[in-house]
Design brief:
Radius of gyration: 22 Å
Largest sheet: 6 strands, antiparallel
Low-confidence stretches: 284-293
Mean pLDDT: 85
Number of helices: 10
Strand content: 25-35%
Order of helices and strands: EEHHEEEHEEHEEHHHEEEHHEEH
Shape: elongated
Number of strands: 14
CATH architecture of the largest domain: 3-Layer(bab) Sandwich
Distance between the termini: 69 Å
CATH topology of the largest domain: Hsp33 domain
Number of domains: 2
Structural class: alpha+beta
Length: 293
């Protein structure tokens, strides 16, 4: 379908409400091709991936938005990152012997963290909300209410083939009249009739026609979403350098080489004794103080 792996934005002409639709197939399959996630982990990760792509529409600069869940439950870590160019990557760490359906069973006590970073800037924005025991959508709705003071509703779905998301959000500013509140409630009620199958299979145009055929709205040109991982040998070398020569040398002596796997894309990086010596020799040369004669 032509709408797969596209993020669509839309606004209503006479109601201060904006919205977004995203449907992911190839990018989602790229994540699943690299990890054999159990269904209960897979579906939550897919919902989080669709949600983060929806949130990425707020980025108006070169940078990234990261959704991260840290927990004391069987799924100890879940991370999705989307960059300004709409490249996305996602991963989850879990104990497969402890997995049971239900958000509370998967994550236990957990926090959902949204981090927005600008390229080449030290500062970053971070918002934190308790994950709770409902679903990813409910946690994000609470995040927008507490951090952005914006009434927001999300609908998310995922399976082994597709991940999809739908977002409605009131424009900044208080509703000017009871009629606007009524319009918001009406739009949400209509969106509540959306089925998972429709969200995953209908094109954005078909979906909006199905929900809001009596409203005037504008559907903008979509953004293409693609899977891409930003890992590289250079970045892995920098990480190893922060561990220090002695610790890396210990691993080298014990194993004969230093191997590192990227948790996002499963790319394997291998460093032998020459690589390690070169890495730290170059690091010393780069950071050595200038000698004056």
């Amino acid at each position: 379908m032509e709408d797969k792996d596209q993020l669509h934005r839309f606004i209503f002409d006479n109601v201060p409400v904006r919205g977004e639709v995203v449907q992911l197939h190839s990018s989602w399959k790229s994540v699943l091709d690299r990890h054999d996630y159990p269904a209960v982990v897979r579906d939550v990760l897919g919902e989080a991936m669709a949600a983060t792509v929806l949130l990425s529409a707020t980025i108006k600069f070169l940078g990234s938005i990261t959704l991260q869940i840290q927990s004391n439950g069987p799924v100890s870590m879940l991370v999705v990152q989307v960059k300004t160019d709409k490249t996305v990557r996602a991963m989850a760490s879990y104990d497969d012997e402890e997995l049971k359906p239900g958000l509370k069973n998967l994550f236990g006590e957990a926090q959902l963290v949204i981090t927005i970073e600008m390229d080449n800037a030290a500062e970053r924005y971070q918002g934190i909300v308790e994950l709770g025991d409902k679903n990813i959508a409910a946690a994000l709705e609470e995040y927008f209410r507490s951090s952005e003071q914006l009434e927001t509703r999300l609908w998310l779905t995922a399976d082994e083939n597709n991940a999809g998301g739908f977002l409605l959000q009131q424009m900044p500013g208080e509703p000017s009249a009871d009629g606007e509140r009524d319009d918001w409630n009406r739009l949400v009620i209509l969106a509540n009739t959306l089925s998972d199958e429709e969200l995953k299979t209908l094109s954005a145009k078909e979906l909006l026609q199905r929900l809001y055929h009596e409203d005037n709205l504008r559907l903008f040109s979509p953004d293409l979403v693609e899977f891409a991982c930003s890992c590289s040998k250079e970045k892995i070398e920098k990480t190893l350098h922060t561990l220090g020569y002695e610790e890396v040398k210990d691993v080298l002596d014990q194993q004969g080489s230093v191997g590192v796997d990227c948790n996002f894309c499963n790319q394997h990086y291998e460093f032998d004794s020459i690589d390690v010596e070169t890495m730290f020799t170059e690091g010393l040369r780069i950071h050595a103080p200038e000698t004056r004669h």
